[in-house]
Amino acid sequence: MPLLSILIVSSSFVPGFTNPNDVVVASAVVNDSNSTNNVVDEKATIVAAAAELYNELDLGSKGVSIEAIEYAYTGYTNLKRRGVVKNENILTVVDFSQSSRKKRLYIIDMNTKKLLVNTYVAHGKNTGVDMATQFSNTHESLQSSLGFYVTKGTYFGKHGLSLRLSGQEEGWNSNAEQRAVVVHGANYIGEHRKGAAYMGRSFGCPAVPEEYKEKVINLIKDGSVMFIYHPSAKYLNTSKLLSI
User: Using the 8-state DSSP alphabet, how is residue 192 labeled?
Assistant: First the structure.
């Protein structure tokens, strides 16, 4: 609810008002109206900026929906406002509304307005076969988690170079670090499996083709935003980062 500024003025100084509370109410209504207009204006600005980005990069031809980009832009804006984004130049969108056989990971340079990478990305084993349908924030669920992440630092683990992710949404991906949900390379996904019924699946990590691992990780590491999207009504209706 917007904050309302309260102006208290004696009724004797305000012609036409018989009760000081009338002045308070009048001021509150005006300020509430201004706050509403500001929200509407900001939403319109975000929608326009997302549409410009979508059209300029011809993202429609690459399979991603305008809705996914609008949601991504909204959350990206809110996370910047929170001050948790160290690398504002990069926005990564993972579109799990698409088949796993599609190149559904998009790394966008928000400064130069260029699509830097468009490649395959795996979903969790228990999230679905070809299409992602089930999501979880629970340990050992082997499912992907929806929502916004901020990337952290790199490390070398069983998959070699890997990238830690910090889930920014309570109940949706807040257990990502405890679950070891990270970006890493995998041989079970990539161009060589394009003709298969589905790509290989992870234990919940957004794994990328082995040959893209270093490029992807080095582009998005250290404080950029990643958004894992799916048109799940429950998520879209409850995510605080999708509200202005």
Answer: G
How far apart are the two ends of the chain, measured CA to CA in Å? 11
Q: How far apart are CA 134 and CA 192, in angstroms?
A: 26
**Cβ count near 67 (within 10 Å):** 15
| Lookup: tokens for 171 | 């109940």
Rounded to 10 degrees, the C-alpha dihedral 172/147/74/98 comes to -140
Residue 233: its pLDDT value, please? 97
Model pTM? 0.85
pLDDT tens digits for 38-93? 777 889 999 999 999 999 999 999 999 999 999 999 999 999 999 999 999 999 99
Sheet holding 105-109, edge to edge: 114-119, 105-109, 90-95, 225-229, 147-157, 160-167, 182-186, 208-209
Cβ atoms 144, 207 nearer than 8 A: no
Structure tokens at 70: 């609008």
Query: If you write DSSP's letter for every residue of 6-62 in order, what string do you get?
Result: -----GGGSTT-SSHHHHHHHHHHHHHHHHHHHHHHHHHHHHHHHHHHHHHTTGGGG
